[in-house]
Amino acid sequence: MASMIPADEQTNYEIFRDCVSEPVLRILAAPPKKEPKKRRREKKSKKPSKTTDVKQDSEPEPEPPSPPNDAEDLSEFIEYLSTDIFTSLPPSLRTLTHALSTASPSLQSTYALPLPPSTLSSIIAAVPVSTTDSLTSYALLTSPHHNPAVDLPPFLGPILAAYITTATTPPPPPSTTRTDACELCERDWIPTTYHHLIPKSTHARVLKRGWHRAEELGRVAWLCRACHSFVHRCAGNEELAREWYTVELLRGREDVGNWVKWVGRVRWKKS
């Protein structure tokens, strides 16, 4: 599906797909909730109940489709969602860059975060109905309204915010520490972001309590967006600074190890 994207929009599409994949992977990776077993109270009766006969004859309700969990199917599903939504975006948003945003006060105003309600509404109105149906079928939309104007903002709003932030952020300064692949899942075909192994918000406390030396505070790991978000869901900043301050320590966590094995199988097809 990525072949549908014009060459001059390909880089932005890949950023957008990465932003879409993070919440989809997070939601679908969560273990399904087990419903408590209901105990049936059977009444002893010699005569058969008419109500029981009716229930036995009635047809079972159709089950909703199961979300894709196979790595290849999941990759295709994310590609489908990303392509359908991205191609419905306004051209100015599909081609947004740091240079264009800096040079255009109009673009800065239109796509200032948080997005103005009028801008978000116009974007949502252009999303194909089939995409909304797929999101609803696979329980990616949590609202019970089944109304795109109500259901889509909580899902698409954060994706658009992450996309705009990434697309308009100036290129990072050259760094000898940057890697070609995510340092956790080792996928080398998706963008990476830098994760402060000792979060900046903890630096004063770290130095006061002597957890690390001052020269160690700037260490970073290059992680894909999905792994970066997962790490921050695993522990708070203070715990990360105190106990999980290297890639090796993070890899040693059972939950991170299980996540890395799972997400590492999700691959995009070459266009």
Task: Give a brief outline of the structure.
Residues 27-72 are annotated as: Disordered. The protein is mainly alpha-helical and 271 residues long. The protein has helices at 10-29, 50-57, 71-88, 91-94, 98-103, 105-110, 117-125, 129-137, 148-168, 203-209, 225-234, 237-243, 247-252, 254-263, and strands spanning 192-196, 220-224.
Describe this structure in words.
The structure is a single chain. The protein is mainly α and 271 residues long. It has 2 domains: 2-29 and 68-168, no CATH class; 192-263, no CATH class. Helices cover 52% and strands 4% of the residues. The chain has 14 helices and 2 strands, in the order αααααααααβαβαααα. The protein has helices at residues 10-29, 50-57, 71-88, 91-94, 98-103, 105-110, 117-125, 129-137, 148-168, 203-209, 225-234, 237-243, 247-252, 254-263, and strands at 192-196, 220-224. Strands 1-2 form a two-stranded antiparallel sheet. Helix 1 (10-29) crosses helix 3, helix 1 (10-29) crosses helix 9 (148-168) and helix 7 crosses helix 9. The termini are close together. Residues 48-58 have low confidence and may be disordered.
